[in-house]
Specification:
Elements: E1 6-9, H1 14-39, H2 49-73, E2 77-80, E3 84-88, E4 93-97, E5 101-107, E6 115-117, E7 125-130, E8 135-138, H3 143-159
Parallel strand pairs: 6-8
Antiparallel strand pairs: 1-2, 2-3, 3-4, 5-7, 7-8
Length: about 160
């Protein structure tokens, strides 16, 4: 197992946390509403009981599904190794080899154009331009320290590359 040179959490802006939480809360609230309609009160008078039961099951299942997708897709940690950056979610990881990096820098705002954005902050972003393929944006919690460590790792990597 190769050693991790630097590890950082991913920065999530408050607006993104709000959107993520609200989407789950809405699905759960709809599930509760359908469930209450089916089993006790007739909240939706035109809705048959069986349809309300099915609606409750669908809404609760959708809430669980969305939580699983969030866990699987949203980045959790960023790692710097000797020869790559690794973006890690709960289930998956994505490697960006230094060999494929053309440049990287701080940036802000929404990505426009060809991006693979795992950016979860509008202010705390690093844009990585690859030699081929999509540009990538990441959002480390400690942006300046992450950049310092990345600079150091890339310099060390370049020093030991055969010419």
């Amino acid at each position: 197992m190769e050693p991790v040179l630097f590890e950082d959490d991913v920065k999530y802006d408050l607006w993104l946390k709000f959107i993520l939480v609200v989407s789950i809360v809405v699905l759960i609230a709809l599930g509760i509403m359908f469930s209450v309609d089916a089993y006790s009160r007739d909240i939706l008078p035109e809705e048959p009981v069986e349809d309300s039961k099915i609606g409750a099951i669908i809404m609760f299942a959708a809430a669980v599904f969305v939580l699983l997708v969030y866990g699987a897709v949203l980045p959790r940690k960023l790692f710097i190794y000797r020869d790559k950056i690794r973006i890690k979610s709960s289930l998956f990881f994505y490697n960006i080899l230094f060999l494929k990096i053309e440049s990287y820098s701080k940036t802000k705002g929404l990505p426009m154009g060809n991006y693979l954005s795992s950016s979860t902050s509008l202010k705390n972003q690093i844009e990585i331009v690859r030699k081929r393929g999509l540009k990538i944006r990441i959002s480390p919690c400690r942006l300046n320290l992450f950049l310092e460590e990345l600079n150091r790792a890339v310099e060390d990597w370049e020093e030991y590359q055969p010419r």
